[in-house]
Amino acid sequence: MKRGNASTAEALRLDSVSKVYLSSRVPVAALKGVSLSLPPGTFTAVMGPSGSGKSTLLHCASGLDEPTSGKVYVAGDEMKFGSEAELTKFRRGRVGFVFQQYNLLPALTVRQNITLPLRLAGARLDKERFRTVVERVGLAGRLSHRPSDLSGGEQQRTAIARALVTWPAILFADEPTGALDARNAREVLLLFEEAVRTFGQTIVMVTHDPAAAASASSVLFLSDGRIVDKMERPTAATIAERMTRLGGEASLTAAAEV
C-alpha cells in the first residue's frame, strides 16, 4: 500500500531557511540559510552537537515554528505562516508527528487516540489503511485499552499509528526512542523502516543516538545552524566518529568566538 501522492518530486524542501531568536535582546541565529530537498519514501536522520539547531530545523520544517526568513515546501506546496487556523489546516493534511512523549489522551482508547486527528479534521477513516497500520504496529488486540494499560513501547506505537493513519506527506519524529528501553526502541525503528518500505512514507527523525540514526537511509549533520555533512547508508560507528569530530569542531568554534 503506497501513498497516493508518492509521485511528488519532493516530500520536503527548505529554501534558505533561517531562524533568529532574541535572548536578552541579543540575537541568536539557530538556523543560518539552510536549504535541503528530500524525495518521497526516504528516511532521514538529523544529528548534531547540542545547540547545533537540529530541533529548530525540525520545528521550522514542520510548521511548529515560523522561520525568520526562507521558505518551506511540503509535497510541493508552500507552507504559509499566516493565521494559526490556516497553518493547522495545512499541517493536518500533510504532516505527521511523533515525539519522545507520546501525547496520548488518557481518557480515550487506543482506537480513539489513533483516529482522533481524522475526527478533528472531519475526514473519513480509510478502514483498510487503519487495519493495515494497526496490524503493522502490533496493536490489533489492544484497541479497546487506554494508555494507562499500555507499556511505553505500546504507547509509542499508538502514537506512530496515529501519525500514519492520516496519510501524511511527511512524518517528523523528535527523539522518538528517547524514553524507551533498547528493545522497544528497536521495535519503533523497525516500524519506521517498514513504513518507508510498505507505505512509501517519508520520515525525518531528530536523534542524539548513533544507533537510532543508523536505521535511516541517510543522516544530515548540523553544526552552528548549518548543514555541514550528509552520510548515505550510515552505520552507528561511522555516525559516532563523525559526531566526535563535530563536537571537537564546535568546541573550537566556540573558543574562537570568546
Topology overview:
Blueprint (H helix, E strand, L loop, with lengths): L11 E12 L2 E13 L4 E5 L6 H9 L6 E6 L2 E2 L5 H11 E5 L10 H12 L5 H10 L15 H13 L5 E5 L7 H18 L3 E4 L3 H4 L4 E6 L2 E7 L3 H22 L1
Parallel strand pairs: 3-8, 3-9, 6-7, 7-8
Antiparallel strand pairs: 1-2, 1-4, 4-5, 9-10
Descriptive notes:
This protein is α/β, with parallel strands linked by helices and 258 residues long. The chain has a single domain (12-257), classed as 3-Layer(aba) Sandwich (Rossmann fold). The protein is built from 8 helices and 10 strands. It has helices at 54-62, 84-94, 110-121, 127-136, 152-164, 182-199, 210-213, 236-257; strands at 12-23, 26-38, 43-47, 69-74, 77-78, 95-99, 170-174, 203-206, 218-223, 226-232. Strands 6-7-8-3-9-10 form a 6-stranded mixed beta sheet, with helices on both faces. α3 (110-121) runs parallel beside α5 (152-164). The longest helix has 22 residues, at 236-257. The protein is globular, with a radius of gyration of 18 Å. Residues 251-258 have low confidence and may be disordered.
Q: What would CATH call the architecture? A: 3-Layer(aba) Sandwich
Biggest sheet character: 6 strands, mixed
Order of strands, main sheet, comes to 6-7-8-3-9-10
* CATH topology group: Rossmann fold
Features:
258 residues; six-stranded mixed sheet; alpha/beta; four-stranded antiparallel sheet; single chain; Rossmann fold
Gist?
Helices cover 38% and strands 25% of the residues. The chain has helices at 54-62, 84-94, 110-121, 127-136, 152-164, 182-199, 210-213, 236-257, and strands spanning 12-23, 26-38, 43-47, 69-74, 77-78, 95-99, 170-174, 203-206, 218-223, 226-232. Strand 1 (12-23) and strand 2 (26-38) form a beta hairpin.
